[in-house]
Design a protein that fits this description.
mainly alpha, elongated
Length: 102
């Protein structure tokens, strides 16, 4: 049973994280255009991109996308917990795993 729950959680978590990252990226691109008047750098490693623009884009986009993925996965874990009555297998602490297998 834990194996089935593990697979469900893995897919559910992945879909939530990918959706959140896509939405965050779209929002970031629009916000960057509104704030700077130009498109975000396609490749911040490109030497033709100003170093400060590249640093700012990397910092902002990495932070926002990382936070969006984390928040989506927390929401997904909450939904899973309400549905199954327990945390996903990968998020259970040692004492919770012992209690469910005993």
């Amino acid at each position: 049973m834990a194996e089935s729950g593990s697979k469900v959680w893995t897919v559910f978590s992945l879909v939530a994280a990918l959706a959140a990252a896509a939405i965050a990226k779209k929002t970031l691109n629009s916000s960057w255009r509104a704030a700077t008047g130009k498109n975000p750098p396609e490749n911040p490693a490109d030497p033709d991109v100003d170093v400060w623009e590249a640093v700012m884009w990397a910092a902002v986009s990495g932070t926002v996308i990382g936070l969006a993925r984390m928040l989506a996965q927390r929401k997904a874990a909450g939904y899973y917990q309400r549905s199954k009555g327990e945390l996903p297998p990968q998020l259970q602490r040692g004492d919770e795993v012992d209690a469910t297998t005993a």
